[in-house]
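Lab meeting prep.
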Amino acid sequence: MFSKFSFLIISTLLFLAGCQREIDMVQPSSDLPPAVPVGLIVAFADDGSVGLFWQSNSEPDLYGYNIYRSTDSLHFSAINFTSNNYYVDDSLNYNTIYYYRVTAINLGNKESLPSNIVSGKPINLYPPSQPLGLSINARNWEGNMSVYLSWNQNYEGDIYGFNIYRSVNPGFNSDSTNLIGFSKGIDFTDTLNLKLYTQYYYRIRAVDKGGLISTQTPEVNDEIYGVPQIIFPQDDAQTSYFSSFVIKAIAVPANYKIVVQDNKFFGTFWSTNFSSSVINDTISVSFNPDYINTDVPYYWRVATYSQGGSQPNSVSPLYKFIIKQ
């Protein structure tokens, strides 16, 4: 994982590119160990991460490098392998001094002697970056109301979690007065005192292991819809061929989807999407499948969608009907 200061590695790489040692004109053998890596430096040490950089070995049979770490400069343990000439060690303690050295490995699994030793103390200097990709889906599923939030993982190695903030007012500032939860992961489900047809606004902030907090995200918002009522055909209906479903619209204009299944648990036999400004009144929706069998069960439900999302906002119960000849 790259730290937020990984650009320093790139800068160092460009600076040292012209400083490579002369290539040994004798063709190396995989039976012999590679040369000792040279030029090992600590490119950065902060916020629980230490970035290392060294000059690339020139042997054509080079396989990569072993990274060794110690907390006393004497007893080193291998912590990782890399084929690059840089490495970022993260999720470290802020107040510990870490010592490093590097060895080279060739295709014959021969290992060089260790490089020089460098050290770094990754103290907590900077707050995390603002989380990105915050998305929202208000839900009224199977009688349970919730608002689901998800976002991208921060790249810092010392992230402890994320504070969740909520308001019913747009443009709010996230602070302790509207803090409603905390997540160790990259999603959160809010179930706290939710009401239908209320716009809820959310922001999040990242928190690191030292307690430093990021700037707030842009807000996202959504509202929980009521469940559309199924009028025709009713559950367990046995009916002749029909050309329209009938539902009762919810209390706000919305996007709808009707799905017909020939299996109770999965699969789509027929579906249609439509938008309607009708509120609290019946809507007829054309039903025009290419074919339909008689005397076999079909299952249908209605879902609503807010903001054009791919996840439904509210979902009706699943109803069964049978076409009789």
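Slide two material, second protein:
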Amino acid sequence: MTEEMDVWVSTAHAKINLGLKVIGRMSNGYHELETGFCFIEWNDQLEVSHDSVTTVHSEGLEIPVGKDNLIVRAAESFRRATGIRKHYRIHVRKNIPLGAGLGGGSADAAAILRILNKMEQTGLTDEQLAEIGAALGSDIPVLITGKTGIGTGTGTTLQFLPIQPRVWIVTVYPGFESNTAEAYANCMPTGLPDISLEKILTGYNPDEWRYLIDNDLEPAVIPRYPLIGNIKDQFYDMGAVFASMSGSGSSVFGFFEQEFVALDAYHYFVQDNYITNITRPGFKPDTGVYRK
């Protein structure tokens, strides 16, 4: 198989936010944040080969595939940063909903940067890829690495910590998108927390997080989309030890200490026709790039 016929594959994993503290607004209009990142077993699969022009083809959930697609923009950013003049045919099996607070588009962009770095043997470090990605989306740097940690600043300054919860995680997409810009425009910054997120996530058990961790975007989002709050309440009614909206929504997740309780919750939402995911305790994403 020649280089032009090689197909390279990687998996793009969704993230959820463990707390999201909106500390304040910056002079540039962005918000200063503190948030935890971990991963769930909800993913897209990407295949990339060389072509005469860069195009995106998808199956599964529908996504826009034009030049404004984050995958195309990531490929173009890689080409500009490296001087590579080649183009790519990108095929996406899309499973992660967009506008769900799961970083689905950012995960795909991160995967493309990893794939192209391997395909073209450019040898860029994760830090260099993260620098390219940060200009496209604040979630991309952590999604490039596949490592859990805490993001500060705009979410792109990362401190990697072993904070993947050792609980069952059930994540529900309520069937509609939540607008990130609107969520931040309507949120009320709450200042520095009394207890640092690092201390909470590393020093307290998940069953204590309910009383210590907030997503500061929930008060801005839930009044517009009450179903998000209803799903969160349902998780607690079902025995979750912690539940929260992820990012700016619209997805909601619940932590369960017992497998059978998590499975009951999972099957309840599936039977109610919600797109739902269940993740094993201590899950670690595979960010490898492989020749097909």
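Talking points for slide two:
The two ends are 11 Å apart (CA to CA).
The chain has a mean pLDDT of 94.
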